[in-house]
Design brief:
With 284 residues, the chain is mostly beta strands. The chain has 2 helices and 20 strands. The chain is elongated and about 70 Å long.
Amino acid sequence: MDERGKTQPRGCQWGDQVSRAGACRGVLAIGAALTAIASNASAQNCGQWGDVVAWQASYAFTGSGGGTTTDGMLVYTWTVNRQFTATATLTSYVSCGEVPGVLAWSGPASTASGSGSSNGQTTQTSPDCGGPFVKINWSGNAPSLGSFFDGAPPQLQLQINLSNQTYTVLDDAAVSGTISRNDCGHGTSNSLGLTLGPLWSYYTAGGSQYIDLSPKSFRLPQTIGILQQTTSFAAPAETYPLDSNAIPSTTWNLNFKLTPLRPWEKVWMSGGSSNPAAASRERR
């Protein structure tokens, strides 16, 4: 079991987000996520992007959708809602010398809030149950930085893949959720952490099949500058129960802005406030 009370499947690395569906969200586990990228990238000079010592980040997403999952003979319909917003300074650095072809910066959020819910019920009904056989309500809320899962601030990470000139921005946001289940009039309620962002990998049908999706990536600019995107895409969201052969597709709206700082620059490239601590670091 992991620290969120969820079964840890084979192949999960320390630091991975583990979904209730048995998935490893290798969001900030550099040894797992970056090695996978590096397997397709040859060793090379870090180039101009290796000069960046820190990034000032603002990051937000919403997610909403619905769909069906199955659990044995039962079919569930789901309604999913998510929201997360954060700011951070990314200073923890992994160079392409450590993982060939890949650069990464990460850091804890300095401000953050988020919430989410996954609510489902069976399509099968019974008069004896007064409606669906099973109803599940799973939700959690983190209105401030210290109220996320385990009291720890969410982490943000920027990964740059030099081999295909793309970049990805990831988070590990999770809230301390409560899951309530009503089985034909018999109710239970337990604490269970809820992942806010998309599930980029997960097991289906009780672990019989592993689905590995590529996180949303973007084309890297030709020259160093602000990385900024506003985009929408479809990806799965975390739902319950474990024995599921499908994860409902959710529409995600993602918005972020990352401003770089190089050691000889006394202020952020956007013209914002100075950052002497980062600016005093030696040029990489």
